[in-house]
Amino acid sequence: MVEEEKLKVPAEDLEEDEPQGESGGCIGMALYWFKVLVAEMHWSFVLGVVIVYGISQGLGGALNRVATKYYMKDVQKVQPSGAQFYSGITSIPWMVKPIWGLFTDLVPIFGYHRRPYFVFAGLLGVISLLSLSLLEKLHLPLAILLLTVGSAGVAIADVTIDACVAQNSSFHPTLAADLQSLCALSSSIGALLGFSISGIFVHLIGPKGVYGLLAIPGGLVLLVGVLLNEPHMPNFNYRQVSEKFVSAGRAMWMTLKIPNVWRPCLYMYLSLALCLDINEGLFYWYTDSKDGPKFSQENVGFIFSIGSVGSLLGALLYQYVLKGHQFQDLLFWTQLIFSLSGMLDFLLVLRLNLKFGLPDYFFIVIDESVHQLVNRLKWMPLLVLSSKLCPRGIEGTFFALLMSIDNVGLLSASWGGGFLLHILNVTRTKFHNLWLAILIRNCLRLVPLCMLFLVPRGDSNSSILITELPSSDVDNEISEANNIELVSLVNGIDIDNQKEAF
């Protein structure tokens, strides 16, 4: 990144362009705010945030999600339980994000900490997605491998831009919140646009054609690596890398042994793992079942876009209404409502909505909106709690570790849901036991209510981690290396948010 002294912009230059009164309107204020960020940081960094968060993760992630569902169903012709299992495999690169973070912080390449990793991530995305698009009759294992490689490219780019954001936030503390707003805004707008057009593109050019288009975001990530303004640091001593890796690992292990840390970590894992993911079975029923709604690709994309709006509303509701409440109270009510909201799927599969005079399309839009809103409300307290479990000196990497633990919980839920669909014999053409899978899933969502004692009392303003790491060489080495910079790793889960379906 650029040095602090190079980033100074005379205040009068910015004041001249500041919108006066209401004449500029919202668009004028937004453009002015964007111009301030470009002037204070560097245009290449701001461009990198927009490309990685907005185009690669937001728009590209939305297109990839819908395309992969149809690719598994229509091209590879796998069963719902198989599709559920394979979606878990492709998410594995997001579970090792602390490793990517340590590499980009500790191991420079040709004197650069960030640029080579953007180039590498872009190459992974371009090669894997073009291969999926152009190669005919790919065997399923090779297709899964290519999808996993593409996912790794997005994960590496995500971790690298997170490090850049954290570094710029430390240089410009007054703009730290603005940087997070830029990240969230770019991701939300990209996802909304991506879901809105995903169904249309899948219908017009098929899922393999969409994979070809997704090589463009990968190429743009590569371009970020070429354009990013980063100081060159030659003559790096690579002999210290292994020692710093060991030091970071020891510090994280010491922290995990603290009761105030491992107990809420256990709750977060179990609360996610017990919410079995059977979305692939529901997706097959929505689109192929003789007795189902038979939604088109365009309808599926639009429904996902409505869900992303619900997720955004959930984040706003937490920020302005609920963030001051106790963690245990919030988690109790959101988990309870999350279980009850799952009964909307139950009513839909049994076709009870038609008996009440509610059309399928109207009902599923409500279902998806409520699901995403409640899921976001359930997730936000866990994110805040995770940030409070991180000790000083290893905040970023430990937060990445917590996010990886949560991703393992999501993987467990995905594979557990696939196993449930398999034992209930829910296939491409048989859905008579799908209602039972939904009922079992909803009942298991209630189990985390019995484990809330693992979560400490407190709210977003409380200090949870009372016990700190003892002073040691581990802390000193990490602090001196200044190698822990990852702070904003929320998008790797939102997801996906990348794996959430109806």
From TrEMBL:
Keyword Secreted belongs to the record: no
Keyword Transmembrane helix: yes
Residues in the signal sequence: none
Transmembrane segments: 41-63, 117-135, 141-161, 182-204, 210-229, 266-287, 299-318, 330-350, 398-421, 433-455
Membrane topology: Multi-pass membrane protein
Region (Disordered): 1-22
Subcellular location: Membrane
One GO cellular component term: membrane
Record's compositionally biased regions (Basic and acidic residues): 1-11
Keywords assigned by UniProt, alphabetized: Membrane, Transmembrane, Transmembrane helix, Transport
PANTHER family given in the database record: FOLATE-BIOPTERIN TRANSPORTER 1, CHLOROPLASTIC (PTHR31585), FOLATE-BIOPTERIN TRANSPORTER 2-RELATED (PTHR31585:SF6)
Family: Belongs to the major facilitator superfamily. Folate-biopterin transporter (TC 2.A.71) family.
Official protein name in the record: Probable folate-biopterin transporter 2
Organism expressing this protein natively: Cucurbita maxima (Pumpkin)
